[in-house]
Amino acid sequence: MRRYARTLVAFALAAGMAAGTTGWVSGDAQQALTGPPPGSAQWRADRALGTELPDPEQATPAEVARFFAGLSTAEQQLLLVRHPSVVGNLDGAPLELRYRANSLALAADDDPRYRSLAVPGRQILAFDPRGRGQVAEVFGDLRTAQRVSVVVPGSDNDAGTFDRKVAAHGAPPGMARTLHTAAGPGTAVVAWVGYTTPVGVGIDAATGSLAEAGAGRLTRFAEGLTADGLPEPAVFCHSYGSVVCGIAAHRLPATDVVVLGSPGMRADGAAGLRTKARVWAAKDPTDWIDNVPNVRFAGLGHGTDPTDPAFGARRVPANEARGHAGYFAPGTDSLRAFAAIARGTAAPEWAETPAEARDLAQAPVLEGVAR
Q1: What pLDDT score does 302 carry?
Q2: pLDDT of 252-304, one tens digit each?
Q3: DSSP per residue over 84-107, as a string?
Q4: What Cα–Cα distance (Å) separates residue 86 from each residue in 57, 68, 332?
Q5: Is residue 173 a contact partner of residue 181, using CB atoms and an 8 Å limit?
Q6: CB of 245 closer than 8 Å to CB of 265
Q7: In what side-by-side order are the strands of the sheet with 147-152?
Q8: How far apart are CA 253 and CA 229, in angstroms?
Q9: Distance between CA 137 and CA 99 in Å, rounded?
Q10: Beta carbons within 10 angstroms of residue 145's beta carbon
Q11: Secondary structure (3-state) at 134
């Protein structure tokens, strides 16, 4: 009982510290957006092709991909025009159709929060205006990319805040854009805000309910990429997004799971994630997340710090990053390492400082890196 009491005290202290952190306030409880895309009832009832269409909720991404592969171009275009909100969010549908479908859906949406998403030339792979809104945007040529990455952000992200004016590398599109620029040709990066995130610091951020719902959506999204013939992605998970990735890991098709600024992954160690993917972790010395106790009790907290050597993740150097949102800042050791992972290269091109060398000595390292 003393141990449990200490745990509760630790949470109280953590909540107090977090509430006093600039930019973070107690958040309102959020209702996770689940279920099929908007317009699914009309899609299910449509017999324009003389057959039933795949159920957006029940059909697997692989089944969706096979269905579209059996259609003519004219039939695909007919469904695109009749049901843009379904086609644009249907995992397994060809990405080119999804881009066009979401362009139509955004053009028809008069909500001012989403006006910037409708700018021509953007590659919007998913768009759901319900609630706070969800969105995914692609940077690079996803169809021809040899390596694909997905950025999963944490709290206070949705379609309405997607284009907010913050540091160029701090919001989801900024993270994805800078990673794509650093990784270079042959890569593509998706900024994925496809789940209901917590707002501020509150019970949602301290529990796993939103992450549970998000994990299912992330898994289906990644399965949709591979069903469409794209490579398994490397997944970069920031803050509460790392909780989503931790819960999804055992079923997530991914080459790498990279967590940064993580409060924990709801696992005691990398082995507990039960994933074939390589697991990486980064935390910079100025990140306030280090003040959050890594405990789990009565549904609160997310467990062991993934950068703890005992966790067993490969440590990514992040001594040049600053703050909780600085991991993708150009010129940092963390971005250089992320770019190497995104490219799939064996030896990252960061220059080791004594501090970085110490970090690398404390945990498993990238294959091919000479100490």
Answers
A1: 86
A2: 999 999 999 999 999 999 999 999 999 999 999 999 999 887 877 557 778 99
A3: HHHHTT-TTS-HHHHHHHHHHHHH
A4: 11, 13, 40
A5: no
A6: yes
A7: 123-128, 134-139, 187-193, 147-152, 234-238, 256-260, 278-282, 314-315
A8: 13
A9: 9
A10: 20
A11: strand
